[in-house]
Design brief:
Layout (H helix, E strand, L loop, with lengths): L2 H13 L1 H10 L4 H12 L1 H14 L1 E3 L2 E3 L3 H28 L10 H11 L1 H6 L8 H24 L7 H26 L16 E3 L2 E3 L5 H25 L2 H15 L11 H5 L5 E2 L2 E13 L2 E11 L5 E8 L4 H10 L3 E5 L2 E8 L2 E8 L4 E8 L3 E8 L3 H9 L3 H6 L9
Helix pairs in contact: 1-2, 1-10, 2-8, 3-6, 3-10, 4-5, 4-13, 5-6, 5-9, 6-8, 8-9, 10-11
Length: 420
């Protein structure tokens, strides 16, 4: 699907499902085509929103804001995205396996269509997680509407007798809830994060008339759609590599596929631990470095590297300075930066704000009572630099981030990118 078709399908399945389901059911399709041309694009929306909420905005309660680190947020985002794609296929397989029980016709591709298009409402509603307090209501509405879409779609895609569609839907939904709970448990056990308020200015549809949809070419939605175009060719390379039996070619094709899905120009090799560790200085003014670590991790063809150092002084000042290379997830980070809100909050003893400066997304917060805070910057839509801890003022944390050669870091934004 091209960008206009992705938007049109989502718009039509949400607004006129009774007439859109017969059209979708009759279309020729393949598993890889559905993934690269629709599922991988739309399923990314709630994952990106969760990253914005959990790592850039945070959750506030009684004056306390909880926010996961950028590194944890990125890891959670990648894992959640991969598991969500797996869950879609597992649910399609289950719906296909249940076909005979409800007098339907087994067809895995049609089952995948059923899941992909009915879940559109829940995926898009997933963006609502970044909206204060209303987010849960939006998520609930999206989930309920997805159940309704599933009920309407089964008679068309799986040829289920209309009178059995309710039972087919009920069993499928119960299984989906259980599997979703298992995945949430897995992510929760591996990552601790939290999610607060936002604007969707990057998701612009400039005009829509009838079946014709025009989107802003610079919008986040257009960038998401562009993923599908890159992923389409990547999927063909993947199929060719699998047929060849060449493990090296299969690994390269997987990297290209994940690069396409994440919005990168191609597979991205994150900076080596020694490279990223070299950005951390030996001292921060009077604070001496007491420890340093660096690592590079990868999964499913995507790499992320991170270096962290602790600095301490004699006057109870203690700062943690982190540099992270989002590597294969840099496409997600670019979209997250584009979607993130600019906002400011004030309290009796501190503040918190997110804003753009010099083309970079900046987040800062400070509590004058505890003399603690955080200052972080996304550089080159790929790297993140963050300083947090106890200091005399927020200026100390800003100076800590300033001790990193941000210009050099930005100049490396295409390092390791293997353009295809």
């Amino acid at each position: 699907m091209d960008s206009a078709n992705i938007i049109a399908r989502a718009k039509n399945i949400l607004s006129t499902p009774q007439t859109e389901w017969p059209v979708a059911a009759a279309e020729p399709a393949t598993v890889s085509g559905l993934y690269t041309g629709y599922i991988a694009i739309v399923a990314a929306l709630p994952v990106i929103a969760q990253f914005i909420k959990g790592s850039l905005i945070g959750t506030s309660f009684l004056g306390v804001t909880v926010r996961s680190s950028i590194g944890v947020g990125i890891g959670r985002m990648i894992l959640s995205y991969i598991l969500s794609l797996v869950l879609v296929y597992v649910m399609a397989w289950i719906i296909n396996a249940l076909a005979g029980t409800f007098g339907a016709q087994a067809n895995l591709v049609q089952a995948l269509k059923t899941v992909a298009y009915s879940w559109t409402a829940a995926w898009i509603a997933g963006i609502g997680v970044i909206v204060p307090w209303l987010g849960l209501l939006i998520l609930l509405a999206g989930g309920i509407y997805s159940i309704y879409l599933l009920y309407l779609g089964l008679p068309h895609t799986m040829k289920c007798p209309p009178e059995k569609a309710a039972g087919y839907t009920a069993v499928s939904v119960i299984i989906a809830i259980v599997l979703g709970w298992v995945i949430s448990l897995i992510v929760g056990l591996l990552f601790v994060g939290a999610m607060g308020g936002a604007a969707l200015s990057g998701m612009q549809v400039t005009s829509s008339t009838g079946d014709s949809v025009t989107i802003d070419g610079n919008s986040t939605l257009a960038k998401l759609a562009a993923m599908g175009q890159k992923a389409d060719q990547a999927s063909k390379d993947m199929e060719a590599a699998q047929k060849s039996g060449d493990s090296a070619a299969q690994s390269a094709a997987m990297g290209k596929m994940m690069g396409a899905m994440s919005g990168s120009n191609g597979p991205v090799e994150a900076l080596a631990p020694d490279q990223i560790k070299a950005f951390l200085p030996d001292s921060l003014g009077s604070l001496k470095r007491t420890s340093i670590s660096a690592e590079r991790n990868g999964a499913m063809g995507m790499q992320v590297s991170q270096a962290s150092a602790e600095y301490a002084g004699t006057d109870n000042q203690r700062i943690t300075l982190e540099v992270a290379d989002t590597g294969g997830a840099k496409g997600f980070i670019a979209m997250a930066a584009a979607m993130a809100p600019e906002e400011e909050k004030q309290t009796d003893h501190g503040y918190e704000k997110t804003y753009s400066a010099g083309g970079n997304l900046v987040h800062e917060e400070w509590d004058s009572q505890s003399k603690s805070g955080e200052y972080s910057v996304i550089v080159g839509k790929r790297f993140t630099v963050k300083a947090n801890g106890n200091a005399d003022s927020i200026d100390v944390l800003k100076q800590a981030v300033g001790s990193i050669d941000l210009g050099k870091l930005e100049s490396m934004k295409e390092a390791g990118v293997k353009s295809e």
